[in-house]
Amino acid sequence: MLAGMRAQLERLRDKQFGVFTTAQARIEYTRAELRARLRRGEWVPVFHGVYREATTQPGPGLRVEAARLSMDLPVLIAAYDTAAELHGFSVAPRNATHVLGVQLSRSKQLVVHQDRLDPAQVATVNGVFATSAARTAIDLARTLNRLDALATLDTASRTGLSAAELSEELVHHHRRRGFRQAAELIGLVDGRAESPMESRTRLRCIDAGLPHPQPQLEVSTPDGPRRLDLGWPQYHIGLEYDSFAWHSGLHAAARDNARHNHLATQGWTIFYATALDVLHQPELFTDPIGRAINRHRVESKGR
Is the four-CA dihedral 189, 88, 173, 113 of positive or negative sign? Predict the structure, then answer.
């Protein structure tokens, strides 16, 4: 059983998002006691000279505070994916903690970006300083790969960030790396996407030259309205992202088969995409959809 923390250090820990420094621990513990707790795994290093208890989860607030203490700074601002974690729209978590600053880090797990920042681009999220939601979204839209960038923007939109806020923030990033990508993807943002993989799937369709699909397309079935992940209602074509969590097991198969059999009787064609397809072989679903759309166009002209 883990021994309780001594009172003075416990109070410091509670004020610092669950972390404490070597110097703070040494107020109540000898060097030998500190080493013993580390050796037993009761205390875990976060960054140089900063620790957390093994039972404390290393969330973004804790990591940013640990970075601040490690760098001995009065204030530190979370940025990029770490800021997105705080704002609730991180879709491609990276192992490192990202902050803004000028001094270099001693750890590969702590990335310090020397970016300029206007005071209006700073927010406080649950007591942690971070780049504002709009600034964070544009930073990631510029620097992530296209699939993750659109997924980030869609998720940010779903959390309440508007297209106007994104466009207003984008102006401040003119001539910065990735500006053109961010500008293009802002025009594709759709908060109706219910998962990052749906956003990535939609972008694969757009990049393949298909007409822009509608996210979460509602269609009728005998059991009432149902939604397709993506759809082209004018062509009666739907696309489902086949995630293991949702489309798996006997009950899921029965549910989906009955629903899609009904749609087939209504003239719908349903295609499927897996994560492997979306990330590495999008032509496996975009090419068949393209052919189906072309057939529908040809048949429509012949009527």
Answer: negative
Across 37-76, where does the E strand assignment appear? 43-47, 50-53
Q: Quick one: CA dihedral 261, 262, 263, 267, positive or negative?
A: positive
Could you tell me the pTM of the whole model?
0.89
Q: Which of 128, 119, 132, 198 is CA-nearest to residue 161?
A: 132
Contact call for residues 78 and 64 (beta carbons, < 8 A): yes
Closest CA to 181 of 140, 216, 213, 218: 140
Residues 6+ apart with CB under 8 A from 64: 17, 76, 78, 82, 97, 99, 128, 129, 130
Of 296, 256, 289, 257, nearest to 271 (Cα)?
289
The span from the CA of 60 to the CA of 58, in Å, is 7
pLDDT tens-digit map of 219-257:
887 777 889 999 999 999 999 998 754 444 444 444 555
Structure tokens at 253: 């198969």
Using CA atoms, how far apart are residues 31 and 36, in angstroms rounded to an integer?
Answer: 9
pLDDT in tens, 152-202: 999 999 999 999 999 999 999 999 999 999 999 999 999 999 999 999 999
Dihedral sign for Cα atoms in the order 90, 132, 100, 151: positive
Instruction: State the Cα–Cα distance between residues 109 and 122, nearest whole angstrom.
Output: 23
d(CA 180, CA 170): 10
